[in-house]
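To illustrate the input format used throughout this study, we show a single complete record. The first block contains the structure-token representation of the backbone; no residue identities are included at this stage. The design step must infer an amino acid for every position from geometry alone.
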């Protein structure tokens, strides 16, 4: 018998317990930076060296942290479910925890591309420096989706949400679109779970279950609930 399709949308709250600061924390990684200066095409055009330095720091930080119990718990669900992770996070902690189907909405910190073309992308573990060129002659930049740029993976993500047998949202404010709109693609009869320290304001969603806990605790509770129905 085919496994049920479990689709999980994750946000910064999943990686926060690994030590990666979230976008909205008072001491978050954007502290001291105008977001539009480090995460927009306009900021890149004005000061690419600042943008590269910002993301080089993020990349070094991502290398220093490890997956937490939430990442590992989601990976373990692949034993009983066809699990698809749709993540807003640019780190690779889901993959390192063992998840085999991960779709990144906002890009990946360990990839880079030319500033002249979206494709192809290249693996990167070290710093990107001003003057580092892609084969097409463009400056290499992080393969991150900045504010004002299209989200190329939103179409496959929407199709996954529409095909879900179970849909889970973990550690996201549900304020950043188009990711926040994915829950609207999920069929009315499908069970939906939201896990967060503070459940975001959501209304009019059928078969919704809320778990107001940090991601690590919430995923453990989710696994117990799901195991009782397998």
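Output of the design step:
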């Amino acid at each position: 018998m085919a496994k049920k399709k479990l689709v999980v949308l994750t946000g910064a709250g999943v990686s926060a317990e690994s030590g990666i600061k979230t976008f909205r924390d008072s001491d978050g990684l954007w502290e001291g930076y105008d977001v539009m200066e480090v995460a927009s095409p306009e900021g890149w055009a004005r000061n690419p060296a600042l943008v590269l330095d910002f993301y080089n720091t993020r990349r070094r930080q991502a290398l220093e942290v490890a997956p937490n119990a939430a990442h590992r718990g989601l990976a373990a669900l692949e034993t009983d479910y066809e699990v698809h992770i749709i993540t807003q996070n640019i780190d690779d902690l889901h993959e390192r925890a063992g998840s085999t189907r991960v779709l990144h909405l906002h890009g990946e910190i360990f990839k880079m591309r030319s500033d002249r073309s979206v494709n192809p992308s290249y693996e990167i573990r070290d710093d990107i420096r001003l003057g580092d060129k892609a084969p097409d002659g463009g400056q290499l930049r992080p393969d991150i989706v900045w504010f004002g740029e299209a989200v190329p993976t939103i179409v496959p993500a929407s199709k996954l949400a529409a095909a879900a047998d179970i849909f889970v949202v973990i550690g996201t404010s549900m304020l950043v679109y188009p990711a926040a709109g994915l829950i609207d693609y999920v069929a009315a009869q499908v069970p939906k779970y939201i896990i967060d320290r503070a459940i975001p304001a959501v209304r009019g969603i059928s078969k919704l279950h809320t778990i107001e806990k940090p991601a690590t605790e919430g995923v453990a509770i989710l696994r117990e609930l799901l195991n009782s129905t397998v």
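Structural context for interpreting the output: The longest strand covers residues 107-114. Helices lie at 12-16, 35-38, 41-46, 48-64, 69-76, 93-97, 154-163, 215-227.
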